[in-house]
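Predict the assembly for these two chains.
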Amino acid sequence: MTKKKIFTNIYTYFILIVVSVFLIFPFIWLVFTSVKTEVQLFEVPVKILPDPFTIKNYIDVIQDGSMMVYLKNSLLISVLTTGIALVISIPAAYALAKIKFRAGMAFFMIILVIRMVPGVTQILPMFQVLTRLHLINTRIGLIISYLPGSVIFMIMLLRTFFMEFPQELEDAGMIDGLGTVGVIRRLVIPISLPGICSATLMSFLSSWNEFMYASVIIRSPELKTMPLGIQSYVSTFQIYWGKLTANAVIYVLPVVLFTIFASKGLIQGMTAGAVKE
Amino acid sequence: MRQKKYVVLKQRRKRTGILLCIPAFLVVAYAIYMLGYALVMSFNSNMGVLSGEYHFVGWENYRKVLESEEMRGVVGNTLLYAAATIVTELGIGLLVSAALRRNLRGSQAAKVCIMLPMMMAPIASGTIWRWMLTDRYGIVNHLLGLLNIDGPMWLADKLAAKFAILFVSVWTAAPFVILVLLASISSVSDDIIEAARIDGAGGLQVYWNIIFPHLKSAIAVILLIRIPDALKMYDIVYILTDGGPANATQVISFYVYNKGFTSLKFGEAAAASFLLFLFIAAFSVFFNSLVNRNKKKGR
């Protein structure tokens, strides 16, 4: 190895390490904070390592019980939204990718326009309408509000995946007597499964992480989702950082695990729409 | 006869296409209805929206929004954040994607580290940063102290609060930029680079003349996705500074939300939010046509 190469390697590692530390440190600090005692959190100067190590925050949070309710609500709403969005988006994405028809082209243009509408422009009228329909402060109201965003996101992403689906395979299926629904169910879905999985994961995450709509639509504590639970800790007069971070760790843990195990698929899903054009 | 059959088949296929789109269309129609409702609301008086009646007030709401001193500050902040975060993200993105391209040992681990912030809920990242930026007990000021720098009151000082928001938004969005650039940079073939090397090009020359032109369309896509996103920012401001101190970190979404749900001036809020939508739409259409024209020129 030449001297120059060693130098560029050091330089490369330096950039990667600095950026990785910058990006990962808040997670480490989140975990450290959650296993410190309340006294230790307010020590000056700051002590980096937790000493004594305690899981009291976690026990408190779990015994309090409200976190379990928030988790259940978040899970329920994200799963339902994503499931419904999948069932609705797959056929539409297939039609837009594979069939040439004028109505479809018009529909796709509409989707492109609606995708640009900021959340805050949607939530003002939604609040009025949902109030009138008595759907404010209900899980159904929240799911209805999440659906357009999820469906549009999925159609856009799945369409790019389905466009790659080989026409020959589809024709062969048709000749063997499959109808359009059969082609979608027996051929398109199994073959595009990786793409569908990453779309599902991303859509699930966007509902799991959503805050603004939930803060408008949900009021009662027993219906709150996780982000609202975390927010309620911050807005009280004194912030209990230990419990708050324990809550946050439990909230982000599934996401972190997902990311580590599915990083390849996620990168593909995220960049698929962006790189092909 | 055969011709006729072909037409019938084609007709049937079109009909299937429409049928397949109907459920999705219903959901999208709901969003269209909401957009129309927002437009109607923006011409209604604030009281009218609250009482459920309709008092047409013409451009009154738009005039109020555009004339208010507060709105000017808010728009300034929003544009400033959007510009500053995106420039920073692109800088980091170009640097890191080039480093990752070399595919040294450990790159895969670095990629996972890079993905995490993007996956995390903004509300959770805002919370942890808020704790890290606390002035006496926060780790950031402690670390700065080790370097003999006296850290500012991050969330209470006007200027420092702006930097705090910038910092955290870069933290959440840089990963996306890095990954898109990486996907694009990975498709530059090694042969071309090798050939340039043999012809005597240095590292920087290779980057500027071969790799960078290849990244242009990826950068266009990043701008097209990230600029509207940055203009819509809400969660981070809410959890980190709540728009304070003294409105120094207010952004448009935050302003609209409070105008509506705190001050109950729904007419004005709808007008402001509609202006935001129009701005984003105009930007996207303009930028898209710009990119397309350049693409045609390139051929």
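Residues 60-275 of chain A form a domain with the MetI-like fold fold (CATH 1.10.3720.10). The radius of gyration of chain A is 23 Å.
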